[in-house]
Amino acid sequence: MDPVVFFKLVLVGRLENLVSDRRLVEYCALRLDILLFLGYEVDKELPWHSTASRTRQLFPAAVFERLFDHVFAQCVARGLVAGDTQAVDSAPVKANASLDSVREKQPTGASGPFLATGQPAVPSPAVTAAAHHLRREAARQAKRRSEPGPLGAQHEQARLLSNKTHYSPTDPDARISIKPGKARALNYLCSLAVDTAHGVIRHVQADYTDSRDSLHLPRLLTGLQRRLGTNELRLRDLLADAGYANGSNYALLEAQQGTAWIPVFGQYKPEIAGFTYDASADTYACAAGKVLPFHRFNVTPDGSWVKLYWATYRDCQQCPLKPTCVPGAKRKQLTKTIYDAAYRRAWQRQQSRRGHRHRHLRQSTVEAVFGNLLHHYGLRRMNVRGQAGAHKTMLLTAVAYNLKKLLKHRPNRQASLAMVLPRPLLAADRRARRQNRRSQVPTPALGGR
Predict the structure, then answer these.
(1) To pair with 300 at 20 to 30 A between CA atoms, which of 121, 247, 259, 423?
(2) Is 233 left (phi over 0), alpha (psi -120 to 50) or beta?
(3) d(CA 173, CA 8)
(4) Model confidence band, residue 155 (pLDDT cutoffs 50, 70, 90)
(5) Helix H segments across 48-87?
(6) Amino acid 417: pLDDT
């Protein structure tokens, strides 16, 4: 297929909210305006729908990125992009695979299944999750099966699926996820960065849904900063929800001279009840006056770096508050993240009036864009498989959205009009005019009948 015809065809599918390639070709054959746009005559047959699918697989993602950059540069030239404030969010998109096709992963070191001929079948991926994650998942499933009442019996018959132990042979890149209010499904994660000036999409990428949003932010920032630098724009404020709260993300944005307006949530607390922190000495003091100095760094099972503070054994054993402070332990130990300073600054911004304004600005900007993409631009479901194909589809959807904004944009032009106003009359001029009108009144003739 001609590359120009291909990209015109798939853009029509995004603009007309069509997901299936087969339905797209049938729809275009009935529209004379679309045939004119594609350069086809009425009696000329359109390409087969499978040709469009194969052509999409042949083009690398860099070609779709180039098309997105070209349209985005036109939006910048028309004044639709400010560049200093970006709103970031993500939403799941249903993959082109069914949850019924999910299979269980093999344990590490196990041999794959064999066909009737003795040849090995397509091997399933091995379990790669950490041991403590598998133990946590097994405990969660056992707890659900042991729940009393009909709910426990329902879980006993149902398949308790997890990305740590199951995969989809139809689309191995798709991940099992659930959105509040919706059923569990195989999804991809669409991550967006939207400019707050006119709602133009700045960056889009396809991510896995089995990890937190905060882990995808560094890759999103890399692509966003590259596109901003190409168009000579600079990022100052990044707006995101609490799912992107992470100490490393706060520190990364501060290193890039940006401000993270991301609410702090989770286990972080700006103050530890009953303890006073001395920043100059990097120590804590308890209610009994004992000092807990910093001893060493530690890595949690999730890979996070923390700082450990603890008191001496003698201080805790002779303290009268030990039964309520550290019952059953030898000494008191405190844990603090190494990004505590960045967390504290983000927490202070969150409590400010400007932080509340940015929260409402993010909700009114990026969530409206996601609503349009999911319901009016064919992003409610993927018609391709694999993360690379999902990334191409999301790029095409963003291109169609930006193109529509570009065509609808009408710059505000101020109309200038020069008018000559009469000179204001003075009191003497008004009296002179009245006398002239009186002298010009004709006097009636005397006499007559």
Answers:
(1) 259
(2) beta
(3) 28
(4) very low
(5) 49-58, 61-77
(6) 67
Say how far apart CA 39 and CA 5 lie, in whole Å: 8
Average pLDDT over residues 284-301: 87
Distance of CA 158 to the CA centre of its chain: 32
User: What is d(CA 101, CA 171) in angstroms, rounded to the nearest whole number?
Assistant: 9
Beta carbons of 355 and 261 less than 8 angstroms apart: yes
Average pLDDT of the chain is: 84
| Beta strands, E only, 16-146 | 85-94, 103-104
Check: pTM over 0.70? Answer yes or no: yes
Q: CB of 321 within 8 A of CB of 310?
A: no
Q: 416 pLDDT band (50/70/90 cuts)?
A: low
- Nearest alpha carbon to residue 362 among 444, 243, 273, 186: 243
Q: How confident is the model at residue 114 (pLDDT cuts 50, 70, 90)?
A: very low
Strands 259-261 vs 237-239: parallel, antiparallel or unpaired:
parallel
258 touches 234 (CB < 8 A): no
Question: Which single residue is written with the structure tokens 């790029």?
Answer: 395
- pLDDT tens, residue by residue, 338-394: 888 898 899 889 889 999 999 999 999 999 999 999 999 999 999 999 999 999 999
Residue 213 near residue 116, CB atoms below 8 Å = no
d(C-alpha 146, C-alpha 152), whole Å? 6
Distance CA 151, CA 194 (A): 42
Q: CB burial class (10 A; 0-12, 13-18, 19+) of residue 323? A: exposed
Burial class of residue 73, CB neighbours in 10 A (0-12, 13-18, 19+): middle
Q: How many CB atoms lie within 10 A of CB 5?
A: 17
Residue carrying structure tokens 């922190």: 277
CB atoms within 10 A of CB 21: 21
Nearest Cα to Cα of residue 103 among 118, 93, 117, 113: 113
Least confident residue range of 111-120, 175-184, 373-382, 436-445: 111-120
Could you say which DSSP state residue 126 is in? B
**251, 217 contact by CB (below 8 A):** no
- Can you tell me which residue has the tokens 């990209």? 7
**R_g of the chain, CA atoms, integer Å:** 34
